[in-house]
Amino acid sequence: MIANKRIRSLRITLSVSIAAIITALTAVVGILAYSSSYKSVSGVYLDQMKNTNATIARQIASFYEDMEKEAKLVAGLDAVRSAAAGGAAEAAAASVSAVAAEMGHYQDIFVATADDRGGARIVAASLASSAGASIGAADGASVALSGSVWSSAAFPSPRDGSALVRILAPVKRDGRVVGLVGVDADFGRFAQALVSSVKIGQTGYPYVTDSSGVFIAHPTAENVFKLGIADYDWGKAALASPSGTVLDYTWQGKEKFLSFQRDERRGILVFSSIYVSDAKADAISTAVLILIASVVLIVVAVLGINWFMGSRLKPLVAAAKAADGLAAGELDVAIPRGRRDEIGLLLESLGSMAARLREVVASVKSGADNLGVGSQEISSASQALSSGSTEQASSAEEISSTIEEIASATRQNADAAAATEALA
Fold first, then answer.
1. Of 263, 269, 309, 341, which is the most exposed, with the fewest CB atoms less than 10 Å away?
2. What is the pairing mode between strands 268-275 and 106-114?
3. How far apart are alpha carbons 204 and 224 in whole angstroms?
């Protein structure tokens, strides 16, 4: 019987096979997902770094432009014009001091007149210690005295070491340049606020350097004007590369990559860097989520396949039992019908086979019955023939006995005749 046989379930075999295939595909998908996710996440971080650099560079440019506008406004004050033209310096000092106090982002505002060396001498300032100091022609005085606005690169403040930028604007009176106004703006506080407010991923951050690579603004404020990227090979490579370059490098044993944007006019570079581990961690997280979803899919798929195959293969079990019954001689076993698929065709063929077997068995039984009747008739004929043969054998024996008697009588007669002839 089929129930006593150890078989390998087709349902389980198919379920396990499909689960194995899905698992293998999931592993491949996981690897591809990690690789694709790493590239995608790296691209996202790189775009964020570039956008951060561009945004900070624009804000720095706006800062310079605002300082230039404010310097021009200060240059238009009457007290400033008078002092630049050689008038009273006290009124100009009071005016620029008031502006510095009101604005709050200047360490010093000063008024200077031209000297005979192409430079200028400060005659009034918001910081009393600046009065009398000279500004060399190479320090922008010649540009401002020629009628144009000049802006410096960032430099450390002599007071507190913070980053300042100096803007020089011409002071005009009656249509001619009579001196200049200088503003030392607190660029470091502005730039420090920019880089401190931005975070890229988990470990990324921006920073600002001058054209030589010295830090002007950095999340670690202690690095400003004390450290620079030019001391490292990757920093030298960055300083020698065009704006927008992306570089991979190692920092303290860990992989990082950076991107930067250069402002040639103001001598400023805006960098953003991030550890590669950020991109890898995000890629792993994405791959893990995909794997978890895949595991759930595998479980659902196996359960679904198991249920589906069970419902589809149940008629095959019934067909096996029917075939087992036919093998045991149960020709009237019930075979399920009604399916319109391959299994239905198999059951229909099995039913036709059972019907044909019943016909064959019935035909054989009928032939056996007919053969039994014929055998009985043959047996009766044989018995009659045997009885006739016995009677014929008895008659033959009687005839033989009679013949022997006649032969004996004949011999006796012959002997008698011979004796008579001898007597005669």
1. 341
2. unpaired
3. 18
Nearest Cα neighbor of 302 from 2, 87, 11 is 11
Q: Cα separation of 245 and 247, whole Å?
A: 6
With residues binned 3-state (H G I as helix, E B as strand, rest as coil), the percentages for the chain, rounded to 5, are 60, 20, 20
Joined together, the tokens standing for residue 85 give: 């033209």
How do strand 106-114 and strand 120-125 relate by DSSP bridges? antiparallel
- Paired strand residues for 220: none
Q: Is the dihedral of CA 407, 408, 410, 414 positive or negative?
A: positive
Q: Please count the helices (runs of H) and the strands (runs of E) in the chain.
A: 8, 12
User: What would the pLDDT profile of 38-74 be if each residue is shown by its tens digit?
Assistant: 677 777 888 899 999 999 999 999 999 999 999 999 9
The alpha carbon dihedral of 241, 44, 217, 62 has a sign of positive
The secondary structure element, H or E, covering residue 164 is strand 163-173
Residue type, 145: L
Closest C-alpha among 142, 153, 288 to residue 225: 153
- Collapsed DSSP state (helix, strand, coil) of residue 197: coil
Question: Scanning the structure block, which residue is given the tokens 């401190």?
Answer: 196
Q: How far is it, in rounded angstroms, from Cα 303 to Cα 39?
A: 35
C-alpha–C-alpha distance, residues 56 and 259, integer Å: 13
pLDDT 10s digits, 104-114: 899 999 999 99
- C-alpha 385, offset from chain centre: 100
Q: Which DSSP symbol is given to 3?
A: G
| Structure-token pair, residue 415 | 């002997």
Which residues are within 8 A (CB) of 290 and not within 5 positions of it... i.e. 6 or more apart?
29, 30, 33
DSSP designation for 242: P
Task: Give the model's pLDDT for residue 422.
Answer: 67
Dihedral over Cα of 193, 194, 196, 198: its sign = positive
Contact assessment for residue 217 and residue 198, using Cβ atoms and an 8 Å cutoff? no
Evaluate if residue 397 carries a pLDDT over 90: no
Sign of the dihedral through C-alpha 406, 408, 414, 417: negative
Q: Is 318 exposed, middle or buried (0-12, 13-18, 19+ CB in 10 A)?
A: middle
This prediction has a pTM of: 0.65
Q: Look at the block and give the residue holding tokens 């195959």.
A: 309
